Automatic annotation (TrEMBL):
Molecular function per GO: ATP binding; hydrolase activity; protein serine/threonine kinase activity
Pfam families per UniProt: Kdo
Catalytic activity reported: L-threonyl-[protein] + ATP = O-phospho-L-threonyl-[protein] + ADP + H(+); L-seryl-[protein] + ATP = O-phospho-L-seryl-[protein] + ADP + H(+)
Self-association state and partner proteins as the record states: Component of the EKC/KEOPS complex composed of at least BUD32, CGI121, GON7, KAE1 and PCC1; the whole complex dimerizes.
SUPFAM superfamilies in UniProt: Protein kinase-like (PK-like) (SSF56112)
GO cellular component: chromosome, telomeric region; cytosol; EKC/KEOPS complex; nucleus
Biased composition, class Pro residues, residue ranges: 1-14
Gene Ontology process terms (BP): tRNA processing; tRNA threonylcarbamoyladenosine metabolic process
EC number: 2.7.11.1
Region ranges (Disordered): 1-20
Alphabetized UniProt keyword annotations: Activator, ATP-binding, Chromosome, Cytoplasm, Hydrolase, Kinase, Nucleotide-binding, Nucleus, Phosphoprotein, Serine/threonine-protein kinase, Telomere, Transcription, Transcription regulation, Transferase, tRNA processing
Source organism per UniProt: Coccidioides posadasii RMSCC 3488
Function recorded in the entry: Component of the EKC/KEOPS complex that is required for the formation of a threonylcarbamoyl group on adenosine at position 37 (t(6)A37) in tRNAs that read codons beginning with adenine. The complex is probably involved in the transfer of the threonylcarbamoyl moiety of threonylcarbamoyl-AMP (TC-AMP) to the N6 group of A37. BUD32 has ATPase activity in the context of the EKC/KEOPS complex and likely plays a supporting role to the catalytic subunit KAE1. The EKC/KEOPS complex also promotes both telomere uncapping and telomere elongation.
Record's protein name: EKC/KEOPS complex subunit BUD32
Amino acid sequence: MTEEFTPPPLPPPFTSNKTPPVLLAQGAEARLYKTDFLNPSFPAALKFRPSKPYRHPILDRRLTRQRVLQEARCLVKLLKEGISVPGVLSVDWNTGQGEDETGNGGAWLLMEWIEGPAVRQVVNHWEKWMKHCESATKGNNSGMNENFERSAEEDIRSLLRRIGRVIGALHKAGVIHGDLTTSNLILRGQSNENTTNIDPHSTTLKPNLEGEIVLIDFGLASQSVQVEDRAVDLYVLERAFGSSHPRTEIFFDEVLKAYRESFKGASSVLETLKKVRMRGRKRSMIG
């Protein structure tokens, strides 16, 4: 017999909302919702960190408060620096005064909703489209094929350069993201036609790679100007491209070139990145 699904409890004041928030993702530490709590025409992202019954209540309150405030402070700092991240609308670090999860304890952060596809989705679309185009033009005029491929590759290179610049601005501001993947980069500014109607399995429609790069999900973020921390941040993104976007990985140097030009200390970070790569390879060999 299949048990009926019971939605996880919401923190107050969102329990009294006429239209309940929509649960989008649930991780080990937090749940992400889309809500129109403020205004039906103004959606927002609600990140709720429920309390953990297995932790001592005092430690749980301290850790939950520390993490939600760290995320909010990083976002506010980046916004002041003019970096594209979600705006902070509200934060509560003591929901339910630390009660257990059934009492809706924990902390929450209400943020601006960023409309647009994830870079992961767009790059995957581009790779599938390129594969389809190569198959369709196989045996045709080689000069035309070379021109087409050069143009298509320049589009993806341009996207990667924009990513490099925004990460450079992030690090220049003294913030480490902690989870740089293409799922945590959003392309904002595309038309509804290009964002809401993308078929991730389509191979015939040319992907739109235009738009402003917005960084999201600062749950693991910290404030640091250490070269090592910055290099590890870049290494995480490089590994993400290697595992999720094998065709695009060969252009990752475009990210690093744009990053190098973004702030004064970038060259030192890239030198340290080489050492981080070597350590990563050794770990992979050892298992």
